[in-house]
Amino acid sequence: MTKESRICIDEISFKGNDKEIINRLINQLYLDAASISRKELIATIKMITDKYVSETGKRMNNRSLEALGTLLLREELTDNHPDKMSRVEYPMMSDSQYKRRLSSEVFNHDLNIGTGVLIGHRALYHADSKGKSYHGRQAIYRYPN
Q1: What's phi and psi for 7, nearest 5 deg?
Q2: Which tens digit of pLDDT belongs to each residue from 6-18?
Q3: For 38, phi and psi rounded to 5 degrees?
Q4: Strand partners, 137
Q5: What is the pLDDT at residue 2?
Q6: How far apart are CA 26 and CA 20, in angstroms?
Q7: Residues 92, 119: contact at Cβ < 8 Å?
Q8: At 136, phi and psi to the nearest 5?
Q9: Rounded to an integer, what distance in angstroms lies between the CA atom of residue 119 and that of residue 121?
Q10: What is the pLDDT of residue 4?
Q11: What is the CA radius of gyration of the chain?
Q12: Quick one: which of 4, 79, 110, 139 could link to 35 by a disulfide (CB 3.0–4.6 Å)?
């Protein structure tokens, strides 16, 4: 790993209690994450997982892989800026951000528009004169007779 980190992957052996060793490694990575660039973090995680597989002959457990994935996405998941969804090309929401977004949205499944009631949507697909395709949704309303 880098000079800033206290983890030296070459000295680590997954023989014996591999779950305890991987948990200690992940905890140390979380502590060191602020001082490591994303490229270095990706390289470190790749070295850890490769070494784990080569020494144990099996894949890391799902909980450990999920923790490493969350560590890689820490910048996206901790960004609490209110305009996050419009500032970033491919925004990611944490569970709490997703719940907050759902609680602030109004679903229009029974929204009255004039005398009509929204009953659903249908997908729209069309292509322009240059062949570029567009996708959209059209609201479908039911009106009383």
Answers
A1: -100, 130
A2: 567 777 778 777 8
A3: -60, -40
A4: 123
A5: 44
A6: 10
A7: no
A8: -160, -175
A9: 7
A10: 43
A11: 24
A12: 4
What single letter denotes the amino acid at residue 104? S
Q: Which residue has the tokens 């602020």?
A: 34
Lookup: tokens for 95: 């569970």
The per-residue pLDDT for range 72-81, each reduced to its tens digit, is 888 777 777 7
pLDDT at 46: 92
Average pLDDT for runs of 10 along the chain of length 145 = 56 79 88 86 90 89 90 80 76 76 58 66 76 76 68
> Residues 44, 51: contact at Cβ < 8 Å?
no
Please tell me the distance from the alpha carbon of residue 94 to that of residue 74, in angstroms, as a whole number.
10
Structure tokens at 18: 């591999």
Structure-token pair, residue 129: 């004169």
- State phi, psi for 5 to the nearest 5 degrees: -80, 155
Residue 6, both tokens: 């206290």
Q: What residue ranges do the domains of the chain occupy?
A: 1-80, 101-145
For tokens 């270095």, the residue is 40
Orientation of helix 38-56 relative to helix 18-32, angle to 10°: 170
Q: What confidence score (pLDDT) does residue 3 get?
A: 45
